[in-house]
Structures are given as C-alpha cells and as structure tokens.
Amino acid sequence: MAEENNQNAGANGQASGQQDKPQLQFALQRIYVKDLSFEAPNSPAIFQQPFKPKVGLDLNTTHQQVGEGLYEVVIKVTAQVTHSEEGTTSFLAEVEQAGLFRIGGIEGQQLDHTLGAFCPNVLFPYARECIDNLVNRGGFPPLMLAPVNFEAIYAQKKKREAEQAQASGEQATQ
C-alpha cells in the first residue's frame, strides 16, 4: 500500500522533493500614479513662437518591500522640453508611475532582476500614456516617448556596480 501511495504521489508531480520548493507567484495587484507634475513656465509667450523642441528625458526606477511578498515598484519619468534655439523651457512633465506586485518563490538575484527590469517593463506603457496626456492637456503637441529597454538598463546598472565593487576592492588591497 505504501508503494502505491508513493507511485501516486510521483504521478501527480508531488514527490517529497517537490513539496519543499516554494510556489512561484507573480501577480500585479494595482497600478497607480504616485506623483504628477506639469509646468509650462514660459506660457503663454511660448505659444507665440514656432515650436522647435529639444527633449531631455530622465528615467529612474526604485522598489521597496511593503508587506510579506508585496513590493512597490516606481518609475519616475521626467521630460523637460526646451526651445532648441533659445534654450527656454517649454514645459516640464514628471510622473511617478507605481505598481504593487505580489511576488513569491523568487529570491536573491532573480527577485532583484524581476523588480529592476521586469516590473518596470510592465509599468512603462502607463507612464508613457500619462506623460503624453499631460503634455497634450498643457497645449503642446503629443510627446510620444520611445519604448525603453529596462533589461539593458538593469544590465548596465549591474555592470557599474560590479566595476565599482572591483575598484573599491583594489583600493582596499593597496
């Protein structure tokens, strides 16, 4: 009888070694705007001249654990558009797009990668739409931000961290 139970457990994929593994869990709980700002400091004069924009974009991501298996990921997008010839600011639009993610069964480097690259990829389309809407409501032509490769940004960040760790390790040995 015991052999039969072990065979059934193996057939159901619940062998004793697999019961101990944590169940992978990833669920988007909520997407929300955490902070929003739009400034057009030179209006209405800016509308009196031809619109020749020069776009400056700043992008930052942060994350923090806010509960057991619950993480908040925030993308901060700042778009500053200046007149390409005069250098005067046409507008400044800023959004902090956030999301709550329930994540379980992922630890260490995989969790860091999920929070630093995968979650921002989920949130960025919402941030793009929010920036575009703000700019349009401010009376300017739409600002369609190009997609961002958060995988590449994450890889660059990890490379910089490794180089800094190596440099500080070399300085400590000297």
TrEMBL record:
One of its GO terms (cellular component) is cytoplasm. InterPro entries: SecB, SecB-like_sf. Residues 1-19 have a biased composition (Low complexity). Keywords: Chaperone, Cytoplasm, Protein transport, Translocation, Transport. It is found in: Cytoplasm. One of its GO terms (molecular function) is unfolded protein binding. GO terms for biological process: protein folding; protein tetramerization; protein transport. Residues 1-21 are annotated as: Disordered. HAMAP family: SecB. One of the proteins required for the normal export of preproteins out of the cell cytoplasm. It is a molecular chaperone that binds to a subset of precursor proteins, maintaining them in a translocation-competent state. It also specifically binds to its receptor SecA. Homotetramer, a dimer of dimers. One homotetramer interacts with 1 SecA dimer. Belongs to the SecB family. This is Protein-export protein SecB. It comes from Halomonas aestuarii. The gene is secB.
